[in-house]
Every structure is written in structure tokens, then in C-alpha cells.
């Protein structure tokens, strides 16, 4: 298996995997997520693949089939003037195909993202996890992530 930047040939497979992630989120929060949709369109993915501030890394097997991905974004901090400036590599989405989970593909993707963050001079790697996605929470804790902040909601 190799980890590489996504290219336009990966778009159909990325869309399939995005559907898998969306279904997980829709199962947790059916009040917010629409089953059968994806977070990005073909056109948006094509633009992101060209954008060095939004790298997409894919785990590919020996036949170059995409088994998983990590959508990332370089983010400049701070959001306010009372914080020290730094760059974060934000994981917008990380997914491993349901049929290949348990083969450490997610771990390899995450390690690659950490290495890329170091190479790019980032201070940290961050991400968000939906409450109720306990398997993702356990995975990221196993990878060494700690809760930085919590967002709370009151549904009207």
C-alpha cells in the first residue's frame, strides 16, 4: 500500500467513500445529514485536488485502487488577536472503505498526515468528531489526539 496525493482519476472512488462517511453521519444525526448525498461534488473535488492548501491523501493498494482517504486543509491561526500565530493541518475527513477496515489503513493515513504536517511546518493536526461517533473517537484517541475544545448545541 502507498499513500499519495489524490488525482482526478480517484474522484469516482472518493465519491463512493464520501457516501460511506455520510451514511455514518446520517445514522448519528438524521436531523442534519441527508442520506445518499456527498459532502463534495465532482467539480469541487477536481478543484481541491489542484489546491495545495487542501491536500487530499489516498491510501492505494498494489493496483492503485483507493482504499481510503484523508481530506486536509492548511489553516492559519489565530482566529482572534489574543492567540499566537501558527499553522494547523486540519483533517476535514478521514475514511477507510468499510470492507478494508481493521487493516491499519486509517493508521497509515493518519501517520502520513502527521508527517506532512511536520514537513509543512505546522504546529498541530486537528479535526472534528461528531458526538456519537464512538469508533472514530476511539481511533483518534489511539492515534494520540486529545480533546482541544468542545462545541455544544441547543436544538430549537
CATH superfamily: Gcn5-related N-acetyltransferase (GNAT)
Helix content: 25-40%
Strand segment tally: 5
From the 3D coordinates, which CATH architecture would you assign? 3-Layer(aba) Sandwich
Low-confidence stretches: none
CATH topology: Aminopeptidase
Order of helices and strands: EHHEEEHEH
How many discrete structural domains?
1
At the first level of CATH, the class is: Alpha Beta
The N- and C-terminal alpha carbons lie at a distance of 47 Å
Specify the biggest β-sheet. 5 strands, mixed
Largest sheet, spatial ordering of strands: 1-2-3-4-5
Question: What is the arithmetic mean of pLDDT?
Answer: 95
The chain-level structural class is: alpha+beta
Beta content comes to 15-25%
The Cα radius of gyration reads: 16 Å
Number of H- or I-type helical stretches: 4
Q: Which shape, going by the Cα principal axes?
A: globular
Looking at this protein, list some descriptive labels:
single chain; 156 residues; 5-stranded mixed sheet; globular; transferase; GNAT_dom; Diverse_Substrate_AcTransf; N-acetyltransferase activity
Characterize this entry briefly.
With 156 residues, the chain is an alpha+beta fold. Helices cover 33% and strands 23% of the residues.
Blueprint (SSEs and pairs):
Elements: E1 2-5, H1 11-28, H2 42-50, E2 56-60, E3 66-77, E4 86-96, H3 105-119, E5 124-127, H4 134-142
Parallel strand pairs: 4-5
Antiparallel strand pairs: 1-2, 2-3, 3-4
Organism: Roseburia faecis
Keywords: Acyltransferase, Transferase
GO molecular function: N-acetyltransferase activity
